[in-house]
Design a protein that fits this description.
By secondary structure, this protein is of the alpha/beta class. It folds into two domains: about 10-30 and about 100-235, Rossmann fold; about 35-90, Orthogonal Bundle (DNA polymerase, domain 1), CATH 1.10.150. About 40% of the residues lie in helices and about 10% in strands. It is built from ten helices and six strands; from the N terminus they run βαααααβαβαβαβαβα. It has helices at about 35-50, 55-70, 75-80, 85-90, 105-110, 125-135, 160-170, 185-190, 205-215, 230-235, and strands at about 20-25, 115-120, 145, 175-180, 195-200, 225. The chain is globular. The structure holds magnesium ion (MG). The site of magnesium ion has 6 residues, from loops.
Amino acid sequence: MARCDRTQKPDCTCFDHVDTWVFDLDNTLYPSSCDLFAQIDQKMTSFVANRLGLEREAARRLQKQLYHRHGTTLAGLMAEHQIAPQQFLDDVHDIDYSPVPRSPDLVKALEKLPGRRIVFTNGSRGHATRTLDRIGASHLFDDIFDITDANFVPKPRAEAFASFFSSHKVDGKTAAMFEDLPQNLGPAHELGMMTVLVHSHMDDHPVYQDIRGWGASPPAHIHHRTDDLPGFLAALTQCGKSG
Ligand SMILES: [Mg+2]
């Protein structure tokens, strides 16, 4: 597969071959500025504090350590503290969805993508459905592959991608993946997918400091970058082939 010039400006010829459009959910399909994920983050701290009998500050520290060691807080709680996943997923996604803005531009752009659209999330299906409902895009997705479908193995682990690929019969050579966390695009690139990093503005996350340090030279597994997902997608469908 030809690699296109990496540029902020989308080049639709790079995506001519794509018939499977894979989207992360949190801070990708909605802007991080609406702070929805910040609510989840706070709920995770409360869960850790309550379950493990910790003060909030100690719980916060442990939460972040588990996240860095295991890829998600949930994976860490399951591996190190034998926490059953369902209660965690129910608790941390018991949030107010009203800050998620409706996005007619995103809906319009998604509608025009030729082929399947699938959400691949480390969160839960219920959370993804409620979020997509707020955006106005639920009806545009063929399916949601959530952390339960992945047997609680999160992105970026290879097993998560393997189960996603096998359950949806994804061919990496005809798929594209959109994500706000660059590490989750590593396996996507290895599997032949076209990768697009959707810039988020969660400045407290160390990954975003890394991103700022890239300047104009991102790592090889980041093929494209955008801070305007609706605009990026809309440009891809103006090539004449699709729509
Ligand atoms: Mg995300």
